Amino acid sequence: MKIAEGVHLLELRGQMGDRLTILNLTLLTGPEGPTLIDTGYPGQLEALIEALRQEGVRPEELRRIVLTHQDIDHIGNLKALKEMSGAQVLAHRIEAPYIEGKEPLVKMTPSRLAGMPEAMRKQIEGFLASLRELRVDELLEDSDRLPGGVLVLHTPGHTPGHISLFLEAQKVLVAGDELNVVEGVLQGPRPEVTLDMEAAHASLNKLAQLDVDQVIAYHGGLYGPRAKARIAELASWRG
């Protein structure tokens, strides 16, 4: 779904364990070539390819894959897409060792793996082993700028190297998991999946300084227009 010039929301539906989930990826199109932000959960590759094609992009045409962070539902199809397209992989420098399998994913603990059904656990273990074949081509830092007028914002909290991306011309914020949309309402970080709530709140304050009209939250989808006021409200509330 096109939401602004050169900005498309890709909605992926699928199972994560025993529950149905909807993930909201972002595709950027322009003269610099297609850029995909995040890649969905393992097993969603066919759905992702179809979502890309509905927006007029073949997977082999991807030029860049930007990862907001290391969580498995964001990097699940990275290896396959990289092999299909040769796209450059970009992530914050803090997240890179986890994405490349040099460090264990911070939330994929042994106890979490042990609590999974056997079939799911084996699938995830195989996926984790495959990360050692990946490389991040470009290490990102706060305030970096990507082709097409994309501002990189280091927004730690959910994970240490989490980033959000601000499309300045379109006033669209790709928030990753820093923000969520629940029943049509923009919400802040979820404590149960956020490693550092103090850092996440500081990240909210950073986002409140931006002139944001629309937000794409990975969980919950599109919020806007006039999202800036709601982000400021969330940043001012301490609970």
Protein described:
- This protein is α/β, with parallel strands linked by helices and 239 residues long.
- It is built from 8 helices and 15 strands.
- The protein has a 7-stranded mixed beta sheet, with helices on one face. The chain has a 6-stranded mixed beta sheet with strand order 8-9-10-11-14-15. Strands 12-13 form a two-stranded antiparallel sheet.
- α7 (197-207) packs antiparallel against α8 (227-236).
- The longest helix has 13 residues, at 118-130.
Give me the secondary-structure topology.
Blueprint: E1 2-4, E2 7-16, E3 19-28, E4 35-37, H1 45-54, E5 64-66, H2 72-75, H3 78-85, E6 88-92, H4 96-99, H5 110-114, H6 118-130, E7 138-140, E8 145-146, E9 150-154, E10 163-167, E11 172-176, E12 180-182, E13 185-187, H7 197-207, E14 214-217, E15 221-223, H8 227-236
Helix pairs in contact: 7-8
